[in-house]
Amino acid sequence: MTAPAVTAPADERLPLRRLVPLACQHMLAGVSAPVSSVVLIATTLKLPADRTASLLSATLVLCGAGALLQSLGVRVLRAGARLPFLMLPGGAAVAIFLQIAQEYGPATASGSVLVAAAFLLCVLPFYGRLVRLFPPLVMGTTVVLIGLNMIKVTAPMVATGPGLGFATLGVIGFFFLVLRGVWRQLAVLLGLAGGTVVAVLTGTELHVAQGGTFALPDPFPYGTPHIDLLAAIPLLVFALASLAEATGQTVLNSEAVGRTPDPGRDVPRIARADALVSLGSGVFGTSLMVTSAENIGIVQLTRVRSRFVTAAAGVLLVVCGLLTPLTRVLAALPEPVVGAAGLVIYAVIAVMGFGMLARTDLTHGSDSVVIALALVVGMLPLVQPDLYADLPSWARTLFGSGVAAGAIAAVVLCAVFRAFGPRVTAGSGAPPSDATP
After folding, report:
1. Cβ-Cβ contacts under 8 Å for 205 (sequence gap 6 or more)
2. d(CA 435, CA 432)
3. pLDDT by residue (tens digit) across 253-279?
4. 116: which of 239, 264, 303, 416 fits an S-S bond (Cβ 3.0–4.6 Å)?
5. Which residue in 205, 197, 208, 207 sits closest to 337, CA to CA?
């Protein structure tokens, strides 16, 4: 008699009465990122309320489609890891998108998203070699520079109403203090709501666009995307770095659902799905989409490991994106409130970068020199914007972006110091490579 086949935890199918509430939990854990990122984009670019609502609709639909693709997979495309993943706009990717949009215009930013997505598809066959270029040292330096650059960009939004901005910061801090578990992940979103309530109580008028109940998002909101390879460099670097991040997330998610981690098989599938959905991002005017591990805490908390739960969360995100009253209300949030939330988001990004750098051994000197030099290269355009004003336009584009210049410097310096720098030996402050515990 043949024993019945054992269903893997990730492939478990749940009854509807359990599936829906679990899917709602995952959706709540992920909805803060698309809402806050779109509101930041719209406020920074001064988009009208109807276009902001359309952009939010598109982003939520893309997030839902990404969750479905990663959770269910499409074998013919070799896309999707068939793991309980969500797909969200990456905070760092949004920061880079805004930086490009402010320097070269939103049409160029959309074109850069298309270039980066296509580039990611092209380099996936070389995944094993490329991921070695982005150790924690390089990724940490890049993420720190992204956070610091965008704090400078977002601060003027708070300056339009500093009292309201600081009140929103206080509300967000309060929610981080008192909330726990899944609800704590909603602190920024709840802070946006709390700040808006304060704005209304103090006399700020909200301008909510009118429209029907359901609507499809509009493609090409900034006109035909403009392709500028130099302007796209920061997003290209981010796309490559996302491979290293996806490697860690794959291991984390696989272990959470009881699957043996296999980054060589799963990471290209995850990145391919990211790139395909990001092509849609370029069409609909938002930033690169990346697979997120934000919902892994829910998997560990509930002990429900089914990928069909995150697929259902994807369906809910698509439905929310098509409900235009919801997107129109979110599009009407006051600028100082959004700016305060942005400061928190980008400061957290910078702190994440410092956390990555903390995993680097700085005791023998070479890595600390690489970090210092890369930060100098990346910070110079931030503190002295006219430093490269006399250079040719291509050089101003390359070096004038602190994120791109710092990331490239970190990659090159790291490779040079690893190849030609002093070797670490016993007694130099770090254990030799063949040391045993």
Report:
1. none
2. 5
3. 787 788 888 888 888 999 999 999 999
4. 239
5. 197
Amino acid (1-letter code) at residue 350: A
* DSSP letter, residue 16: H
Q: What is the largest CA-CA distance in the chain?
A: 81
At 383 the pLDDT is 83
- Sign (positive/negative) of CA torsion 66, 72, 74, 80? positive
Q: If you ran DSSP here, which 8-state letter would residue 91 be given?
A: H
Q: What angle do CA 198, 204, 209 make, to 5 degrees?
A: 110
For residues 86 and 26, is the Cβ–Cβ distance under 8 A? yes
Please enumerate in sequence order all residues whose Cβ is within 8 A of that of 46, keeping only pairs 6 or more positions apart, or say none.
none
Contacts of 432 (CB under 8 A, 6+ apart): 424, 425, 426
The H-or-E segment that residue 86 falls in is strand 86-89
Is 213 within 8 Å of 323 (Cβ atoms)?
A: yes
Residue pair 211/328 in contact by the 8 Å Cβ criterion: yes
Q: Alpha-carbon distance 349 to 342, whole Å?
A: 10
Q: Is the torsion defined by CA of 161, 159, 47, 33 positive or negative? A: negative
Token representation of residue 324:
């235009």
Among 81, 85, 89, which residue's Cα sits nearest to residue 113? 89
pTM of the model: 0.76
- Integer Cα distance of 92 and 406 in angstroms: 14
Q: Which residues contact 274 (CB under 8 A, 6 or more apart)?
A: 66, 87, 117, 120, 242, 246, 288, 289, 290, 291
Q: What single-letter amino acid sits at 402? A: G
Please check whether residue 336 is in contact with residue 154, taking contact to mean a CB–CB distance below 8 angstroms.
Answer: no
CB atoms within 10 A of CB 195: 27
Task: Count helices and strands (H / E) in the chain.
Answer: 18, 2
Give the bridge partners for 86, in sequence order: 292
Give the count of alpha carbons within 13 A of 283, CB side only. Answer: 13
Question: What is the rounded radius of gyration, in angstroms, for the C-alpha atoms of the chain?
Answer: 22
CB 339 within 8 A of CB 160: yes
pLDDT tens digits for 164-189?
Answer: 999 999 999 999 899 886 677 678 87
Q: What is the pLDDT of residues 73-111, one digit of tens each?
A: 998 888 998 988 889 887 778 888 998 998 899 999 999
